[in-house]
Amino acid sequence: MRLFIIAAAALAIAGPSFAAPFEPGAYVAVSAARASVSSQYADDSSDISLGGAIGYQYTPNFGFDVYTRSLSFDPFRGMFAGSGYYPEHTYGIAVQGTVPLNERFSLFGRAGIGRTSMQGTRNDLADRDETDPMVGVGVSYALNRQWSLNADATYLTKTEVSLFSFGARFNF
After folding, report:
1. Would you list the DSSP string of 22-66?
2. At 36, is the pLDDT very low, low, confident or very high (cuts 50, 70, 90)?
3. Strand partners, 86
4. How many Cβ atoms sit within 10 Å of the Cβ of residue 94?
5. pLDDT tens profile 143-165
6. Would you call 72 helix, strand, or coil by DSSP?
7. Is this structure's pTM higher than 0.90?
8. For residues 49 and 57, is the Cβ–Cβ distance under 8 A?
9. CB atoms within 10 A of CB 79
10. Strand partners, 36
């Protein structure tokens, strides 16, 4: 996966653009995801995650966004549950490298840094925030100049959260 991210980033920087005439501009995006976590304090089965982003696409190959996402994991609670933390939601900033394959399809890679809210499994544990690097790869299909559909896989590296999402993006 690491090699794929490096290759996608290199192609995004050096690759030619095959898409229709590009216009830089702002965008908003929404997505729904299946999230899973590697934690001894929360159920590791998949959970629904909702997210959104506001960003700016500078060139056909480079943009950035500010994102937020709910994680909503079910923590293990009760007398015999371990005392610890599980991720509840995250927000941050990411850069995105894009490789247009043709007028409709594009591959993209994302890398960013964010803050993940960690909730305690017991009432005596104060909630805290973790700095959480993020990486992701995906594919985009442009319906027209303004609307596109996206599918991607994202990984929050410190909290070990995996996300597989599907969403829509509106370019202004």
Report:
1. P--EEEEEEEEEEEEE--SSB--S-EEEEEEEEEEEEETTEEEEE
2. confident
3. 119
4. 20
5. 999 999 999 999 999 998 999 99
6. coil
7. no
8. no
9. 4
10. 162
